[in-house]
TrEMBL record, chain A:
PANTHER family: INNER MEMBRANE ABC TRANSPORTER PERMEASE PROTEIN YDCV. It comes from Salinicola rhizosphaerae. Keywords: Cell inner membrane, Cell membrane, Membrane, Transmembrane, Transmembrane helix, Transport. InterPro entries: MetI-like (IPR000515), MetI-like_sf (IPR035906). It is found in: Cell inner membrane; Cell membrane. Belongs to the binding-protein-dependent transport system permease family. Gene3D superfamilies: MetI-like. It is a multi-pass membrane protein. This is ABC transporter permease.
Automatic annotation (TrEMBL), chain B:
It comes from Salinicola rhizosphaerae. The keyword Membrane applies. Belongs to the binding-protein-dependent transport system permease family. CysTW subfamily. It is found in: Cell membrane. The chain crosses the membrane at residues 23-48, 91-111, 123-146, 166-192, 224-249, 269-292. Residues 85-292 form the ABC transmembrane type-1 domain. Keywords: Cell membrane, Membrane, Transmembrane, Transmembrane helix, Transport. The keyword Membrane applies. CDD domains: TM_PBP2. This is ABC transporter permease. It comes from the Bacteria. It is a multi-pass membrane protein. PROSITE patterns: ABC_TM1.
UniProtKB/TrEMBL annotation, chain C:
Signal peptide: none annotated. The keyword Acyltransferase does not apply. It comes from Salinicola rhizosphaerae. PROSITE patterns: ABC_TRANSPORTER_1, ABC_TRANSPORTER_2. The keyword Nucleotidyltransferase does not apply. It comes from the Bacteria. InterPro entries: AAA+_ATPase (IPR003593), ABC_SmlMolc_Importer (IPR050093), ABC_transporter-like_ATP-bd (IPR003439), ABC_transporter-like_CS (IPR017871), Mo/tungstate-bd_C_term_dom (IPR008995), P-loop_NTPase (IPR027417), Transp-assoc_OB_typ2 (IPR013611). GO terms for molecular function: ATP binding. Residues 4-234 form the ABC transporter domain. Keywords: ATP-binding, Nucleotide-binding, Transport. This is ABC transporter ATP-binding protein.
Length: 268, 307, 360
């Protein structure tokens, strides 16, 4: 009885199947179209072709945008993590004046629409004269991804047995040694999970980046968006397919390593 | 918070020893870099945008620093903007409802699955969150566009004429794609709630004579309601300010708030007006989020508070 | 001059006082327990000694040196935490070697001392395991080894055995005390388990609500409880309320209703209400009308080596603990007599002044 009551019924499984089709259909369609031999958008009804993947190699602008996105993700995720670790330690372990304010401040980008951040950064960076530079992209991305790293590092620190660090200190370790040898290794999964989530968020970001990027410094999503504004051809589908494959690989690593549901619900 | 010893060293009542005085500065050193970063790189831009929204714009002279309220009177009292705001929130509301109807049951179904399937299905559901929105929206363009799969399907059924059938530039199209983009948030939110639910409460209800559907309605659903509500909030707030999907699928014909901000900034170049639209959007968003979460918190503090 | 002295050590958390003016001196090599109910301030006291909590007032002096403001990593005390706080990402050897590493002890010397201390706790065969691969009792011993290997002048134990199951706990009590005797480290242990405190310590410090109630050898704390709190917290007891009176011979006695009971070893006192305590094992059961009072068995509980009876008598419900010497004892409903010797009756003071007596 108890086991059966926890099984899904036939209707539930039908619902589930439709839901899965709904989720996967657009991705599958993109992948299919990427293999079309035709010069226009169509499904590969007369055999598969790799011509649109070869076409990517002939587009240095797309390749450059891809590397820009990669660099931007690496640099800004790392910077956000480095800023998050000490902040999370302070927020988790000390009660001090301004603690609530800082907590709210660091998480506020989650509540501010990216479009608003985009226009705000556009104005700010052009006023201080660094508009369109790689540095300005990094700054803007750190602001929007730090809530993710902070939440995961914070969850890791809160879930930590504080006494291990005290044990280290009682054995003669300095606070810094205690942190480096005892605390950091234990919160490392949370730190890495936060870094990865931050990286992928930065890599995918479009809305805000559209305003901050410049023709010289553009990211892959912005490049694709601008391309879509002009025309939609199978090149977009092949680029998208590459992105899907890379993201799925990344996701499997993240899930294996930390648990996708834990990362995405921001709990430790 | 179980560890409060360091904090209480700082409570001010402790003896003024050198050690506790230097300890009192530790949290400020630790949060300092991030705080400065945020105050400069988040505070300043928002403040400058607020100021910008009061500047005057002229098509020939550009932006001048004469202060005016006319941008706000335009946004708040012009029927054109009313339509855009109403459409935006209508799309948000419908998208949120669809996400509840699809996402909450799906989370429960996945939760009841057996071992390998459970994590596989969860992965398939949550995975798209990591895939670029541009890619996912492109998929919908290919599906619902002029000669997309949907159109061919309808033609085959004889439901569409030879000119094909397209949901591009329609509200329905935008909602479908938005639901696809955001429904994982509902699943993850309900999932997080489900992990705290003791499924044997369902068995307890069955043993007391409740029918399976009654168990779902009276025992399980109330326990995951906080997850549904917080998921709804995330989805509603995100949809209300979403840019990529409405822009690609809705285009210029079906403007929402975010796309109109984009157009003011990058086509019309009327930055002050764009700034005031963004400020209104931001304020509405914050007000909605705040009052909703306060309501939820008051409603559930006693029974299902974080424990 | 004592080895370790706590002088009116006090800790306030906001408005609540966790520890109120605790005075204690400990001799070199002594094993002292802090005993008290949960929340009475034992951990706070230990943390103040360890340096993790800064006292609101008071001093900590060791070997004539004021340590109140010393950083915790400079104190060199060995600490065994309640959760053990083993480093999950390090092997047993690495855990134990951590303190030696911090002291910059050369590798070969380190290896030797790790092996030695692991032999002491009988874990030398598990040195390559990780903490999660050990049982509760083994983890406990690793924690002890890690604290002892640095040869600390003082060993602090916070509820070291409370995470173990009953059987293992008894074994570890013996083992822990044996190791401590062998090594000779001065030890302060925190526990809420009176049996543990009584069986392991040279002296017990009984605490309640941040105050010391009694400092005494275990036997004395049990036999001569300083007040009502100590008498009920340390062991089970029967509390009787009555009056002081004098009998026909003019000697002090305890009066309850129409009945008078002799007392022993008590000087003359004013007449007035008093409370006395009689330990259950001092209450002897006799046939009907052959004891001091008569009663009826209300409940009985069998505990292997003894029976515990609740007897309804004219002086109230009495607990009697009778050794099990073979035949089944009395049955529920049996009419019995109850008696005790005059020297089993302890007069209790109401005042919470800690007993000065009993100091070694
Ligand atoms: N960090 C703290 N902040 C506030 N109050 C505390 C803190 N630590 C302990 N207390 C309070 O001090 C009292 C004593 O606590 P503790 O020393 O942990 O007791 P014990 O170890 O005897 O159970 C308790 O009432 C507890 O609530
Ligand atoms: Mg304690």
């Amino acid at each position: 009885m108890s086991v059966d009551s926890r099984r899904n019924g036939r209707a539930a499984l039908a619902f589930h199947t439709l839901f899965m089709i709904f989720l996967l259909a657009p991705l599958v369609v993109v992948i299919l179209v990427a293999f079309t031999p035709e010069g226009y958008l169509s499904y590969p009804t007369h055999g598969f072709s790799l011509r649109w993947f070869r076409e990517i190699l002939a587009r240095p602008d797309f390749i450059k945008a891809f590397y820009q996105s990669l660099n931007l993700g690496l640099v800004s995720a790392t910077l956000a993590t480095v800023l998050s670790i000490p902040a999370a330690l302070a927020l988790a372990r000390f009660r001090f004046t301004g603690r609530e304010f800082l907590n709210g401040l660091f998480l506020s980008p989650l509540m501010i629409p990216h479009i608003v951040l985009g226009v705000a950064f556009l104005r700010f960076f052009s006023q201080i004269g660094i508009g369109g530079t790689f540095a300005s992209l990094v700054f803007a991305h750190v602001v929007i991804i730090m809530p993710y790293t902070l939440r995961l590092v914070l969850a890791a620190v809160m879930g930590l047995d504080r006494e291990t660090e005290r044990a280290a200190i009682s054995l003669g370790a300095s606070p810094w040694t205690g942190f480096r040898r005892i605390t950091l290794p234990q919160i490392l999964p949370g730190v890495a999970g936060g870094w990865m989530l931050a990286f992928i968020t930065s890599f995918d970001e479009l809305t805000m980046t559209v305003f901050v990027a410049s023709p010289g410094n553009t990211t892959l999503p912005v490049k694709m968006y601008n391309y879509i504004e002009q025309t939609i051809d199978p090149l977009l589908a092949s680029v998208s397919t590459v992105i899907i494959v890379l993201t799925v690989a990344f996701m499997l690593v993240l899930d294996r390593f930390y648990g996708l549901d834990r990362v995405l619900s921001g709990k430790g | 918070m179980s560890e409060m010893t360091l904090e209480s060293r700082m409570a001010g009542r402790s003896r003024p020893s050198v050690r506790s005085r230097s300890l009192a500065w530790i949290p400020f050193w630790l949060t300092g870099p991030a705080a400065v970063f945020f105050l400069v790189l988040l505070g300043m831009p928002l403040l400058m945008t607020l100021v910008l929204s009061f500047y005057t714009f002229d098509y020939t002279a550009g932006i001048s620093e004469t202060l005016t309220l006319s941008n706000y009177t335009d946004v708040l009292f012009d029927g054109y903007f009313h339509e855009i705001f109403l459409r935006t929130y209508e799309i948000s509301l419908i998208t949120t409802l669809c996400c509840v109807v699809l996402g909450a049951p799906e989370a429960y179904i996945i939760y009841r699955m057996r071992r390998p399937w459970r994590s596989i299905c969860l992965l398939i559901t949550l995975g798209p969150l990591l895939i670029s929105v541009v890619v996912r929206t492109l998929g919908w363009v290919l599906l619902i566009g002029g000669n997309g799969l949907l159109s061919q399907f309808m033609q085959a059924l004889g439901l569409a004429g030879t000119r094909g059938f397209s949901l591009m530039y329609t509200q329905t199209g935008v909602v479908i794609a938005m639901v696809h983009v955001l429904v994982p948030f509902m699943v993850i939110s309900v999932w997080a709630s489900l992990r705290k639910v003791d499924l044997s409460t369902g068995d307890a209800a069955l043993s007391l004579g409740a029918k399976p559907f009654t168990v779902l309605r009276r025992v399980i659903f109330p326990q995951v309601l906080p997850g549904v509500l917080s998921g709804s909030l995330i989805i509603f707030a995100l949809t209300a300010s979403y840019f990529a999907t409405p822009s690609i699928i809705g285009g210029r014909r079906l403007k929402v708030v975010a796309t109109s901000v984009y157009d003011e900034y990058l086509s019309t170049m009327n930055w002050p007006l764009g700034a005031s639209i963004s400020i209104v959007l931001l304020v509405l968003n914050v007000v909605i989020v705040m009052s909703y979460s306060r309501w939820v918190e008051r409603r559930f503090r006693r029974t299902l508070g974080e424990g | 001059m004592s080895f370790l002295t706590l002088e009116s050590l006090t800790k306030h958390y906001g408005d609540t006082a966790a520890v109120k003016g605790l005075d204690l001196s400990i001799e070199q090599g002594e094993f002292v327990s802090l005993l008290g109910p949960s929340g009475c301030g034992k951990t706070t006291t230990l943390q103040m000694i360890a340096g993790f909590v800064t006292p609101t007032a008071g001093r900590l002096v060791m070997d004539g040196r004021d340590m109140t403001d010393l950083a915790p990593n400079a104190r060199g005390f060995g600490i065994v935490f309640q959760s053990y706080a083993l480093f999950p990402h390090m092997t047993i050897s690495e855990n134990v070697g951590f303190g030696l590493e911090m002291r910059k002890i050369a590798a070969h010397e380190r290896t030797r001392r790790i092996r030695q201390v692991l032999e002491l706790v009988r874990l030398d065969h598990l040195n390559d395991r990780y903490p999660r691969e050990l049982s509760g009792g083994q983890r406990q011993r690793v924690a002890l080894a890690r604290a002892l290997v640095i040869e600390p002048p003082l060993l602090l134990l916070d509820e070291p055995l409370s995470n173990l199951d009953a059987k293992l706990r008894e074994d570890m009590q013996l083992e822990l005390r044996n190791i401590q005797r062998n090594v000779g480290t001065t030890t302060l242990m925190v526990t809420h388990d009176q049996g543990e405190a009584l069986s392991m310590s040279d002296r017990v410090v009984v605490m309640d609500q941040g105050c010391v109630k009694q400092i005494a050898e275990p036997f004395r704390a049990y036999e001569e409880p300083a007040d009502i709190f100590v008498s009920t917290f340390v062991g089970k007891t029967n509390l009787l309320d009555g009056r002081m009176a004098s009998n026909d011979a003019g000697l002090p006695c305890f009066e309850m209703g129409r009945q008078r009971f002799e007392l022993a070893g008590i000087g003359m006192m004013e007449d007035g209400p008093v409370r006395v305590s009689i330990r259950p094992e001092r209450v002897e059961m006799t046939p009907w009308q052959q004891g001091l009072v008569d009663g009826r068995v209300k409940t009985r509980q069998f505990a292997g080596d003894h029976w515990l009876y609740q007897i309804e008598t004219s002086v109230g419900l009495l607990l009697a603990n009778c050794p099990n010497c073979g035949p089944a004892g009395f049955d529920i409903g049996d009419e019995v007599g109850v008696r005790w010797t005059p020297d089993s009756v302890r007069l209790l003071r109401e005042s919470p002044t800690p007993a000065a007596g009993g100091m070694s």
